[in-house]
Amino acid sequence: MSSDNKNNYITGFVIFLSAFLLMVLAFTKFNVLKTVDTANPADTLTAEEFFALGHEPGVEILDLRTPEEYRISHLGGVSNINFYDTLNLISQIDKLDRDKQYLIYCRTDRRSGSTFAMMKEKGFKNVHLLKGGILAWILDERPLIKEPLK
């Protein structure tokens, strides 16, 4: 192996390792990987409860799925924040009013569970998640907005 190839290999490895460590730090620092006990009724809502509370004035609903998932179908009147875009997720959450009431959901409730834990740590007082996510919503035959496929 030539000296240039060896240096390129080492440089690539150092960049990869640095990026990996930065991601680990971001996930642990901002607690993105924490989850909530979805069996706790105070933290979770059934599709029926979520539907009823979602129609109350001043309640904001956050969809934590990817933009692609959101385009396929979503609840009406919700904001989409991509959970997997970690820095944007944290930035968007930091801009929210901590005293307002939020309902959050994702596909199943794993991403919303992690986001719930992060929001609670950041001082949000009134956050609930949809137990079972949008899949539970669909099984309960609740209304969805479906965007035309392009």
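The above is record 1. Record 2 follows with the same two-line structure.
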Amino acid sequence: MTITVAETNAPAADPTATDSSPVSRFTFHDAAAAMTAETTAQLGTYAKLPIVAVRGAGIHLYDADGRDYYDFYCGHAVTLVGHCHPQVVAAIQAQAAQLIFYSNIVYSDVRAAYATALMAAAPAGYGQVFFCNSGAEANETALKVSRKFTGRPTIIALAGGFHGRTMGALAMTSNAKYKAGFEPLLLGVEFAPFGDLAALAAQMDANTAAVIVEPIQSIAGVRMAAAAYYQGLRALCDEQGALLIFDEIQTGLGRTGKMWAGDHWGVIPDIITLAKGIASGVPMGATMMTTRIAETIHLDEHGSTFGGGPLVCAAAAATLAVIQSGDLPAHAAAMGERIRNALGGLPHVLEVRGLGLLLGLHLDIPAKTVQTAALEHGIILGTSGDANVLRVMPPLVVTAADVDHLAATLEVILKEL
């Protein structure tokens, strides 16, 4: 099969022309050639699955040879409403024909509309949002805002948490393997055990600006605590005058079965960070904050050239509209329960962790073995930092039939293993 990839650095002969065909193209004669070319030209950062992805629709991802995969991983939980949702595609196409980009030095109608819609969906007491380009940037913003608002130097992160790979976000990430070779990192970050309120209370003091937590620690193996822990976090932060930050980069916008993870426990944090599925794969991050915090941020204290550009806001607005109009959080809760019931009794499955459609299968065998076998059967699943936890994170539009197909396939695989 011949794979063609547009060459993007060649200018159009006529900038007013309506023909969108590229001037020239790179051509790969088969998938192996594309893999070799990418490995040669791109900095190696991920151990990649042997798939050359060329097309997607809903839960389905298609490779260069036309093979159909059921995508129960969503490229790190990004394709929240499925690959190429028609409403999102239409919004992107319409905005691209109108205005692709202008920076925050001007107002934007599409940015205004999306920011208004997002804040209307935010928890009570939230006032404003900062748009950026990734989850790491969203968490860096939360760190900066927390220090400025409180006038305190220390951020407490939790063991097992992952908050990004930029230097500030990496400092708040506990796994040593991500930090090796990059020290010294940002000072003023401490770690507390996840799920242990007494240990956290003993660690917090008048220097604590904020506590940052992933409500569900996805990369660490889909780890979560009891409801009382999250409620205790809120009470401790209030008692100490510190802020509570929920990193909802994977949990936000309905994936857990509620719009916001705190809704499960009646907890409203002071800051929520978002990314991943916020714009259905167009790169975007966001830091939402309560009004009392937002009012303390002044002009020129923070910024982003590309954050909240017209194109990405159009994609994000369409994504939010799909989530709300289809009541996808409730659907995620129902499908998550179906997955839990279908997979919980399979061989080698010790436990199904998580909420909604952010689930982890705790196995008594290596998760990588199951992931590899599932891929051979046309199903994409994710591993985690726990070698025995397989992550299941389908799009919110996953159907009962899709879940049943996953269950039937895994039953065959796990019985064979």
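The chain is about 35% helix and 20% strand.
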